[in-house]
TrEMBL record:
UniProt-annotated catalytic positions: D85, E180
Signal peptide (residue range): none
Entry protein name: Peptidase T
Sites where the protein binds Zn(2+) 1: H83, D146, D203
Alphabetical GO biological process terms: peptide metabolic process; proteolysis
Keyword Zinc belongs to the record: yes
Broad class of enzyme this protein falls into: hydrolase
Keyword entries, A-Z: Hydrolase, Metal-binding, Metalloprotease, Protease, Zinc
UniProt-listed NCBIfam families: peptidase-T, PRK05469.1, PRK13381.1
Cofactor(s) listed in the protein's UniProt record: Zn(2+)
Domain of life of the organism encoding this protein: Bacteria
Positions contributing to Zn(2+) 2 binding: D146, E181, H386
């Protein structure tokens, strides 16, 4: 193992054991107080390694500076970002990371879920990682490599730069954000507080990926208020909100427009939660498409379905509320690909081939780019995220550390060798 392998592994294993799950229903910022446990840990470690300007903002972002080396003060200021929260889609409490040394290509099993198996048949990318050290959880939780792998990568790179002043680089601004998983990772104040000319999120997947295109995203809530009545005397009185919710779902194009039947550049309309009673029900959706026209069309479909259900039962009240979340970063980055090309050159300098594929999701970079800070996304190695099969290669993370260092050098005008 290299020094980068050891450090990035140690950091990830330690970080994922800190519960920092976000909560989309919370109105606070950050959405959960436990995210501040991670923020305070990182702030302390940043001070220990010699970072400057370490602070935790009142909206929960850890900010710090790696000062420019002498002679590089005029280089562009680069932001390096990762998010501290883990997805609320699956249990993230009590994570027990496991390191599988020198992966042999066979199935990986889990002590806390005997029927759970990770293998190349389940996760094809795993088949390319023979000999790597693979980190998983124990089966009852997600791992949290999304995005604590990114946190570990940036922290490792920052410590190396601060300890090796002979590596020429401009000013780097580090930002560790909360609430990315619930679409609230970029506060309106962050671009000014970050103070970067351009930035990179380390929140990507496979080795060599440099992403500059993401979904455009909206979130939707359909609220259905029925008429409550005692079921024994409900004839002609009860209007069951849950039945109306089922009608609405049945009206949507489930065979062609849900996540489980789409891929590539196809968007989707995803119902991810239904709650309620016969008196009132709430359906939560996410809408995704790479083009704004397609996103708008999906919103229209949902509104039409809500209107059709309303028309069948005038005694009920059906309300469809659609709100923007983020937009495809390509709309801005394609106007100036300099940050993307700097990252691609860094990947090539590590003997890898850069890969740019559309992200079937979004990052804090999507919002930052829209707000004026061009921010492509860089690989971390994380795979099968948001569930118990989540895993990451230590060697992929170490490669991302090296690419991060190359990006810092390249942006300062120091060509990669």
């Amino acid at each position: 193992m290299t020094d980068f392998d050891r450090e990035v592994e140690e950091r990830l294993v330690r970080y994922v054991q800190v519960d920092s799950q976000s909560d989309e229903r919370s109105e606070s910022s950050p959405s959960t107080a436990i995210q501040l446990d991670m923020a305070r840990l990182l702030a302390e470690e940043l001070r220990e390694i010699g970072a400057a300007d370490v602070t935790i903002t009142d909206y929960g972002v850890v900010l710090a500076t790696v000062p420019a080396t002498p002679g590089a003060e005029g280089a562009p200021v680069i932001g390096l970002l990762a998010h501290v929260d883990t997805a609320p889609a699956y249990n993230a409490t009590g994570v027990k990371p496991r390191v599988h040394r020198g992966y042999n290509g066979g199935p990986i099993t889990y002590p806390d879920a005997p029927d759970l198996v990770l293998s190349p048949e389940v996760s094809a990318y795993l088949g390319t990682k023979m000999g790597d050290d693979i980190i998983t959880a124990s089966g009852s939780t997600l791992l949290g490599a999304d995005d604590k792998a990114g946190v570990a990568i940036i922290m490792t790179a920052a410590r190396h730069l601060l300890a090796q002043p002979e590596i020429r680089h401009g000013k780097l601004r580090l930002a560790f954000t909360p609430d990315e998983e619930v679409g609230r990772g970029v506060d309106r104040r962050l671009p000014a507080d970050l103070g970067a000319d351009f930035a990179y999120t380390f929140d990507g997947a496979g080795l060599g990926e440099i992403e500059y295109e993401s979904f455009s995203a909206d979130g939707a809530i359909v609220s259905i208020t029925g008429v409550s009545a005692h079921p024994g005397w409900a004839r002609g009185k009860l209007v069951n909100a849950l039945h109306l919710a089922a009608k609405l779902v049945a009206l949507l194009p489930q065979a062609t427009m849900t996540p489980e039947v789409t891929e590539g550049r196809e968007g989707f309309l995803h119902l991810y939660e239904i709650t309620g009673t016969a008196a009132r029900a709430e359906l939560r959706f996410i809408l995704r498409d790479f083009e704004l026209e397609g996103l708008s069309a999906k919103g229209d479909l949902l509104r039409q379905a809500a209107a059709a259900v309303q028309a069948t039962e005038p005694r009920a009240r059906v309300v469809c509320d659609i709100r923007p979340q983020y937009r495809n970063m390509r709309y801005w980055l394609e106007k100036d690909m300099t940050p993307v090309e700097i990252a691609r050159a860094a990947v090539r300098a590590e003997g890898l081939e850069p890969v740019s594929v559309p992200i079937r999701g979004g990052t804090d970079g999507s919002r930052l780019t829209e707000m004026g800070v061009p921010t492509p996304n860089v690989f971390t190695g994380m795979q099968e995220i948001h569930g118990p099969l989540e895993w990451v290669s230590v060697q992929d993370m170490a490669a991302a550390v090296r690419v991060c260092l190359r990006i810092a050098e390249n942006a300062a005008g120091e060509p990669s060798a």
